[in-house]
Structures are given as C-alpha cells and as structure tokens.
Protein: Indole-3-acetic acid-amido synthetase GH3.10
Organism: Punica granatum
Amino acid sequence: MMRWFEDVTGRVGTVQIETLRRILESNWGVEYLDRWFGPGIRIEEVEPTALESLYTSLVPLASHANFEHYFQRIADGDRAPILTRQPIELLSLSSGTTEGRQKFVPFTWHSARTTLQTFRLAAAYRSRVYPIREGGRILEFIYGSKQFKTKGGLTAGTATTHYYSSEEFKIKQMRTKSFTCSPEAVISGGDYRQSTYCHLLLGLLFSENIEFITSTFAYTIVQAFRALEEQWRDVVRDLGDGSLSQTITVGPMRASVLEILGSPRPALAKAIEAKCEELAGRDWTGLVPTLWPNAKYIYSIMTGSMQHYLTKLRHYSGDLPLVSADYGSTESWIGVNIDSAAPPEKVTFAVVPTFSYFEFIPLHRQRSSHGQNGCRFAAPVDDFVEGEPVPLSRVRVGQEYEVVLTTFTGLYRYRLGDVVEVVGFHNGTPKLSFICRRKLILTINIDKNTEKDLQLVVDKGSERLRKARGELVDFTSHADVGKQPGHYVIYWEIRGDVDEDVLRECCREMDNSFADHGYVVSRKSNSIGPLELRIVESGTFKKILDYFIANGAGLSQFKTPRCTNDPVLLSILNVCTINRFHSTAYTAD
C-alpha cells in the first residue's frame, strides 16, 4: 500500500488526469454529462493535456442543491443513466447535523472499495509508528443505523451502515490482521445504548488483547466511556456470571454476545472490578491504559467539531497517543493521515489522487468596510472572496481553499463546503489541514463567525470553568433575532458544582473573545446585544442525539450541531435550560 501511494503521489498531475478520464469514460452518455457536453465530443479522443480544461470549461461548479432533484429521481425508481452508467442500488444519508436535514448521496462499489483502501493505507503508515500484534483485537465503537427502502425500492442508510454490512469490512480485518471485538449483530443492533453496553462488555472480555480503540468520531468514544462510568458494576457482574443484563433485549444481539461470553469469568471480573473502583476514586483518569494495558493508541476523527472532546479523551487516555483518523465525507474519501505521531491539533491529510478528481477554489478572507457607527458601506455577499478553481497539482502552501469533487459515484464539480489549508506536500500531493465548514454559522448583522471561531471562543470561556473544577460536557449556539437587537445564545451542559459568579465570568469572557471585526463593531454600537449563556440540565445533549437517531441518523456519523435554527432542537434546549447569564462586556464603566 505504501509503495503504491508513493508512486501515485509522485506523479499527481498525470494521475489526476487519468482519474478524470476514467470517471468520464465510465459514465459517458449519462444525462447529466450530456446536458453540458452535448453531441459530437468523443471523450476517448480528447488529448490528456486538453481534458481538464475542456471539462472545467463546459461543466459548471455545483452544490448539493443542483443535484438534489437527480438524487430524488433515482430514489423514486428512475433507472435511466442519470448520473452513472452503473445502476445505483444504495443511497447514503448524510448525518443531517450540519444542515439540519439528511441528504441523499449515491453509494456504489467504488465507495466501499475506497473506504477499504483508506483504512489499509492509514493502517500501513500507523504501523510504522505504533506496530501492533497480528491477530489482536480492536475495540471499535461502531454502529449501523436503520436502513429503509425508498419509493423506488433502493436501500437508503448511512454510509457507515452500508460499509459495515459490506464484504470490504470483513476484508479490512483480514488485510490489517486486526479483528473487532463485536459481532455483526452488535454493530447493526439498532439500539445504540444496547450496542454500547455490548461493545464495552466484549472489550473487557478481551481486555489483554486490545491493540487499539477506535470509532468514527471522538464524540462516540467519550460517550461510551461515560456509559462505562455509570454501568461498570453491571458489566463486571455479567463477566463474572457469564450472563447478560436484562436491558439487552435485541434478540440477535443478545444471542451472539452470550455465545462469545461462554462460561463465567470470576477472576477476570474481580480484576476489572478492582480497577474500576480505583478509577472511580480518581475520576476515571487514565481509564484506557488501566483497563486495556496493551492498547497502543486511540484512533478517531478528532478535527473540526470533534476538537471539543479532546480534553475529555485525554483525561481518559492518560499518556496513550491520540491519532486522528482520515479525512473524508459522505461524498468521497479525500486524504489520509500519514503522520500518525502528530497530535490531533496539528494533523494533516495527504490527498489520495486516485479517489476522485479534485479541484480547489482559492479563498481570500475579506474585511468589511465600516463607518464609525458600525454602518457597513460595502456589504459582502459571502465570508470569502473566491478565486478561479485550480487542479490538485497547482495548489500553493499557505493558501486556503474550498474542496471541489468529481467522483466515480456521479458527482461532477461538486462543492463540498469544506475549507482547508495547504500546509505542505507529500511528494507531489498536498497535505491539507481542515479549517472549518464554509457555511457561516453565526451571523446577525455584519458579523461572521464560523464553527472554528465559535470553538476558540468556547475554549477561552471554559478555561475559567475548568479552574473552578467544572467540566463542559457539550455545547451549541443560536443566533437569536426574535427581538432587536439580535444576540448570540450559547448553550452549555456542564458537570460539577460551579458558582454562578464563575459562569458569569465565562459568559463575559466568551463575548469578549469573538475576534471578528464585524461582531466587535456591532457589539460596541449595540446593533448586536449582549451574549447570553444558557446552562442546560444534565442529559440535554443526549436528548439531541436521541432526536437525530430517531430520525434516521447513526451514532457513528453523529456530530453535535455547533449552531442550530432547528425548532425541535431549540425547543429541547430551551425546555432544558436551568440558568441564564447575560454578558456585561462592552458596557460603559
């Protein structure tokens, strides 16, 4: 795998043209391409040097909205070659946490194959830094979600669900010589609480054999360990008795776990009980190396909205390395982490040039022009000024870009909405740092604050919380324009007995920490009101998780929305609010 990657990244320009040609030739004649190319062009006769310019001059940039009616026709049973010549039998659903609703994206054999390639390639690079034993076990907190049939008879579900049920998932374990603890009946059980309990139980059953711990997102690992804090006595009892808690009611899951448990393990149960009692006495610090002494690292997506959970993950992991997993989306895999020793905050992703044809839109941050009273003279229509898209081989270090994909699964010049920065190269392929989602999440007036801006503000505000021995469990936000002037609302779920004066300081600190010039000017002129911090009761964010899962999302794909206008979510948050604080920043002395 590494030799192959060294080869393709050494000739990125050629490989990308070959990839574009393969995509177009395999889907030539489909309705979408015919719309732009028209008759008379024979793609196989186009010279390689002219292929990119021909394609990008004829086919426009597009967003999901431009493809949505095509996806719907496919879902409704239209079998014509609309986007791909090969019939699409599976549709992936995005998590819905970013846009507030789930979206269809085609899933094909190529999707499963590139997932397998990504896992194998990343495992090869990780093994250079953290070698693992062949035949060892992986504690994987992975979850399939409910699948359903569309009007046209296609199977729809999350991309992770499709992958976990594919042959490639079984091949991955054989090729990487590491095997998940949990059987398929646990992964696809359909109840994430029951699946989590069984993952933990089997993980402790094989505690001496666990080589590493993983999940799609860091959030899921943190949630699993929080569940262990509450349920460890039940887990210990089941190990000692060779039984299974009556809370596990899904038949196939129950039967498969009991079969693996076999006979009672009183010695193992007693040893784990002693460790858990010790851990409980020190607030579960170093949980992972204590319970899984041979684990080499924790592996998960830890960038973007997952950065918030790093503090808690480090609390659990002790000195065990945290390795950030690879960069992809429901639409396509993009890059792999080939620098496993890098901390999650500094992770980069080397683009795999065979997965898709990549373009990058240069993005230049612009400053608004403001009058002395905060009046805007030149109103920006977006948060960035865009340049002309460039191919993968022409990106520059230090420049920020939006990623554009052309995929084997029928997406053409598809704007992903991710902002990345090129921070270096591996051979000829760029190494990307994920910056944020393109979409502005908090804006009322002339202010513009992204998910990354919000994360920095919350990090700053929660420093005072940590000093007071409090813990920020999770957070989200909302731009409240119901009354004038509008203002930002940040919702916190916290642990610990924290004095109200401390929370007032946290609120003020967050308000002061927004560095966006438009926000500062608007606050000073009172065209944006004081920031409001709302404290919600314990378990509120689990209610949000339950809401998404009840509507078809899978735990493996769940990300807490960092900003929401969803009326159902806002209702949950507001009903669960137990205290409110308003910032005193920007008030006259």
